[in-house]
Amino acid sequence: MAWLVTGGAGYIGSHVVRAFREEGIDVVVIDDLSSGHEEFVPSGVPFYRGTILDGPLLERVFAENAITGVVHVAGFKYAGVSVQRPLHTYEQNVTATAVLLAAMQEAGVDAIVFSSSAAVYGTPDVDIVTETTPKNPESPYGESKLIGEWLLRDQGIAAGLRHTSLRYFNVVGSGDPSLRDTSPHNLFPLVFDALADGRTPRINGTDYPTPDGTCVRDYIHVADLAVSHVAAAKRLDAREPIEPVYNLGSGDGVSVGEIMATVAEVTGIAFTPEVGPRRPGDPARIVASGELAARDLDWKMRHTLQEMVRSAWEARQAAS
Q: From CA 139, how far away is CA 91, in angstroms rounded?
């Protein structure tokens, strides 16, 4: 039996694939390579290039492989861009999830781990976000992830789907020098690109009510994230009790200023970040509690900030 990883050629999905293999669990990957890379899929792993909007392709994947469950990582993940492309975002994240769930039901596959997002919370008015913090998404992306959770919930009621959704903020680092974050919108690639081009990285606002005046966020290592995806899958496989949602959070967070200082230290490239105005709507601090996930999903922060930056930088250098 194998687990199907949608988006398994992407940054997060490829780490999930490797985490499964390290546990001796077979995997199958489907990815349309819109943001993923076929070379991120390990040799010997069955790979299907295509979109999960393609129902007949999904039927073939389930027919040709003994699939026991799905880790659903595929999606359009750019919150800012989703404001300009709401229809595309909903198609990729809502319609595609519905097509996937229909194919799973037809194939008799009744377990799914959903890659959700802390974007479902919007701008919470609490320092520590828990799973019960009110949901108030502020972008089509965040809305689409919350709808995805609702789809799982409703399919659970209607058809007995066993499911859990993992919410997290900023995923960084690399678990293997051959795997890297290639997003044009994420902080680490943006900072590394600026340094490689001889530009100075930029901080948006240094007058927040935080220890160094810069925003504080959860930054979690992608390999730690992957471990908990597999732990959730194993819990579903064993039919053990599982919560419908979990936050994968650090509990304390890291400031943008701390990240910039650590990047300078790790790369050996001295720089003083440019300071721009605050971005509208950026809260001073958003940090999530990971207590429930620590209890059930082997969740913990196994990497320091230095290790997060160093692993990401080494992967960037390896690709140069």
A: 15
